[in-house]
Design brief:
The chain is α/β, with parallel strands linked by helices. It is 43% helix and 12% strand. The strands form three sheets. A seven-stranded mixed sheet has the order 1-7-6-5-4-2-3, with helices on both faces. Strands 10-11-13-12 form a four-stranded antiparallel sheet. It has a two-stranded antiparallel sheet with strand order 8-9. The chain binds pyridoxal-5'-phosphate (PLP). The site of pyridoxal-5'-phosphate has 13 residues, from α4.
Length: 476
């Protein structure tokens, strides 16, 4: 494709854009239990207007747009208050959870360079339920990682096992509030104590859970401590573009104090232009997400969120009760929030995913890691609540249908092929062989059971490789 020689008119541009969307997920219906975080039409309109009104303002230049500094400070203050931070706690608005986590780790690394310059190979200790964005940050920043298996019943971080891997190189412990896959809060209290005892920092990844958890607690759920009231917690990330329903590109990273936050900031005067100064990773970016995030918190308000999350909690509990009554299914771990991992020892959950998709339900298929179960992830959101009875009825039917699926052969073939491979064997021929095992020839099929089963049976490093190859092919 080339830039059109003569520009298209407005109507034509919009028509063509709309045409691109043909195969997209229909998230507005409320039948997706993942992927989109939609507060419904009325609030969506407010978000849109706020976003558009700040679309062209550039957050790089707070000097010429004082409104952006004021908006960010007000928004970050709301977030700090929400997590019981005191006057010392400071933070910044970022483009998302990945950026917030990346900054927390960069801050920890640069803090170490000043406070513990004797450390040459800094290490971060994280539970094996920690989100991929933390692994990404570790890789990008050139830090080492020590992964500690969580307790396989509660799916919470194992504090004693964490203690055992602390070394002279450790700079940071990580806990989640909550983990994405199992929706549980790690024992942040005990991790905080460990951090204090060993003079370490502790980052709480609250990207997905930190906003909703205080509301669940107020609604009577027994939520473990995870916020700034816990001694030893040095930073918390909290996304607003998830369950606060802000437009995408909205997260906050918060630190115990400004001394720590200073390590996050970047300035460069070693060039011929303006002095480059950034609070976060990106430079030029639209202020749309900032204005929209401020708008959505201000518009829904505390009472509005509490009412919303009451509905979400009721729906979540109803789904959990229904799953308890279906012999073939169980919820892995004990979720503290609105997210569930639906697993089975009796049917193949990837076949169940296919059947649910036929009924227009959209869940997220997730893979097993070591001895954990492959499962279907659902995040219960406000838009889903009206569908809960229908979902439960379809879930029961789909479990029956999934019983006749046979995906085991794909798993077995994958395992025996994958086990014989050396790292040097990961080439295009192998790639095509994996696709053949999954029954992919040409385009992607409607039913993903075989593909998911194949990927689940691969070793983690092989799956990473396969997906990178695939994405490298997909994108121009
Ligand atoms: C626990 C957790 N941390 C970090 C992230 C990364 O967030 P983002 O996709 O906004 O970069 C996610 C995303 O789901 C998450 O669940």
């Amino acid at each position: 494709m080339k830039i059109p020689e003569i520009g298209l008119n407005r109507d034509e541009v919009l028509k063509r854009l709309e045409a691109y969307r043909e195969g997209d997920l229909n998230w507005k219906e409320g039948k997706a239990f993942a992927f989109a975080y939609d507060p419904g039409k009325e609030i969506r309109e407010v978000i849109k207007e706020a976003y558009m009104s700040f679309l062209s303002e550039n957050t790089l230049y707070a000097d010429v747009y004082p409104s952006l500094l004021a908006l960010e400070n007000d928004l970050v203050s709301m977030c700090i208050e929400h997590l019981n931070g005191d006057q010392q706690v400071s933070g910044n608005f970022t483009a998302g959870g990945t950026e917030s986590n990346m900054l927390a780790l960069k801050t920890a690394r640069d803090n170490m360079r000043v406070k513990k310059p004797q450390i040459v190979n800094p290490e971060v200790i994280l539970p094996d339920t920690a989100h991929g964005s933390l692994h990404k940050a570790i890789e990008f920043l050139g830090i080492e990682k020590r992964i500690v298996p969580v307790n396989r019943k509660t799916f919470r971080a194992d504090v004693e096992a964490t203690r055992r891997v602390i070394s002279a190189n450790t700079i940071l412990l990580v806990g989640s509030a909550t983990s994405f896959a199992h929706g549980v809060v790690d024992p942040v209290d005990a991790l905080g104590q460990l951090a204090v005892e060993h003079d370490l920092l502790l980052h709480v990844d609250g990207c997905i859970g930190a906003f909703i958890l205080p509301y669940f607690r107020r609604l009577g759920v027994s939520v473990p401590s995870f916020d700034f009231t816990v001694p030893g917690v040095s930073s918390i990330s909290m996304d607003l573009h998830k369950f606060a329903y802000a437009a995408k590109g909205a997260s906050v990273i918060m630190y115990r104090n400004k001394e720590l936050r200073r390590h996050q900031l970047y300035a460069c005067a070693e060039w011929t232009g303006y002095t480059h100064i950034n609070t976060t990773l990106l430079s030029s970016k639209t202020a749309g997400p900032l204005a929209a995030a401020w708008a959505v918190l201000s518009h829904i308000g505390d009472k509005g969120y509490l009412e919303m999350f009451q509905e979400v909690l009721n729906a979540r509990d109803k789904i959990i009760r229904a799953i308890e009554e279906i012999d073939e299914l169980f919820v892995e771990g004990t979720p503290d929030t609105n997210m569930l991992a639906i697993a089975s020892h009796d049917i193949n959950v990837f076949a169940l995913w296919d059947e649910l998709k036929e009924c227009d339900w959209h869940l997220q298929a997730q893979f097993g890691y070591e001895d954990t179960c492959k499962h279907l992830h659902i995040s219960v959101m406000i838009g889903n609540t009206k569908w809960v009875d229908q979902f439960i009825a379809d879930l029961k039917d789909c479990v029956e249908k999934a019983k006749s699926a046979n995906l085991d052969e794909v798993g077995e073939k994958t395992r025996s092929f994958a086990a014989a491979l050396n790292p040097d064997d990961l080439n295009m021929e192998t790639f095509l062989k994996f696709l053949e095992i999954a029954g992919v020839d040409g385009g992607l099929p409607d039913r993903w059971g075989k593909i998911n089963e194949m990927m689940n049976a691969m070793a983690p490093d092989q799956r990473e490789w396969l997906l990178k190859e695939y994405v490298n092919l997909l994108y121009r």
